[in-house]
Amino acid sequence: MLKSNLPESRFGFVVSRKVSGKATVRNKVKRRLRDAIFLRLKELKGVIDVVVITLPGIEKKEFLEIQNMVGGGLKKLKII
Questions:
Q1: 77, 1 in Cβ contact below 8 A?
Q2: Are strands 48-53 and 2-3 parallel, antiparallel or unpaired?
Q3: pLDDT for position 13
Q4: How far apart are CA 20 and CA 26, in angstroms?
Q5: CA distance 6 to 2
Q6: What is the mean pLDDT of residues 10-14?
Q7: Coil/strand/helix, residue 67
Q8: What DSSP character marks residue 47?
Q9: CB burial class (10 A; 0-12, 13-18, 19+) of residue 13?
Q10: 3-state SS class at 48
Q11: What is the CA radius of gyration of the chain?
Q12: Could you tell me which residues come within 8 angstroms of residue 51 by beta carbon, excluding any fewer than 6 positions away?
């Protein structure tokens, strides 16, 4: 996480082949993460750049679980 001088926050997602060998699964994880972040954008304090690195097992999580994990992570970093 870095503070940014840009007008908008930016998020990057790293979903490696260790999560899944299939690109469709990795892309699904990225879409779910992107949606979970989008739902929290209005709560952000300031403009920041964040890179989210995933671990194996996230592909088995439901969207609500991912949404809760993202919210918890943002709170832990004191971003929201």
A1: yes
A2: antiparallel
A3: 97
A4: 6
A5: 11
A6: 96
A7: helix
A8: -
A9: middle
A10: strand
A11: 13
A12: 11, 12, 13, 14
Q: State whether CATH 3.20.20.80 applies to domain 2-76.
A: no
How high is the pLDDT of residue 73?
Answer: 93
Helices assigned H by DSSP within 1-80: 23-40, 63-76
| pLDDT per residue as tens digits for the range 24-70 | 999 999 999 999 999 999 999 889 999 999 999 999 999 999 999 99
At CA 56, angle to CA 53 and CA 58, rounded to 5?
Answer: 80
The neighbour count for residue 23, using CB atoms within 10 Å, is 10
Quick one: pLDDT at residue 4?
A: 83
Asked if residue 29 lies in contact with residue 58, where contact means CB atoms within 8 angstroms, the answer is yes
Per-residue pLDDT, 3: 84
